[in-house]
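Write out the 3D structure for:
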Amino acid sequence: MTQTAELFWSFRSPYSYLATRRYVELTEKYDLEITLSPVYPLAIREPDFFERNHPNWIGYTVRDIMRIGEFLDIPIAVPNPDPIVQNIMTREIAEEQPYIFRLARLGQAAKRAGRSLAFADEVSQLIWGGVAGWHEGEHLSGAVQRAGLDLATLDREAADDAEALDAEIADNQARLEASGHWGVPTLVYNDEPFFGQDRIDIALWRMRQNGLNER
């Protein structure tokens, strides 16, 4: 019997990116369906997060994600542009955010179409995989096509139904917090949250305890 799980995820989270391909591989190897539910990043949900955190947080995070990428042989680079417009030195978040709202709404529209995991996998490889100007030219349309969707169609839905999509994204966040965690990436399986890109093996162990079979 096919087992199911839900992955709460953010386009601005490097740890979400580092987890995505590995979760995709689980769905390819095992009789498992994972629905990816996008949430807005901390910069949108909690703009003062960066001011409250220790000054070493950003520097350590960059070092950590780079070595994890090297360890796992996953290409990773500082996004160009960053999905969140922010002055990293001052931690100030710009009022105008031309990227993240489009990305999250596109991700939620992909969820409606049943392709959110594939969409996030392809698009995050652009954002975090070292593609400069990932938002320009044919980069996004090609990634969306590889995910089995059409960018123009998703963009129309994101523009025409933005309010409803935002309400669905807010519901994703509420369900994430109801699961027992608040951060991403968090996989929820049988009401049990597994937070972090370093909990994938433990999540798999739990699913195999409950009869998860290879395809």
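The first strand starts at residue 3 and ends at 9.
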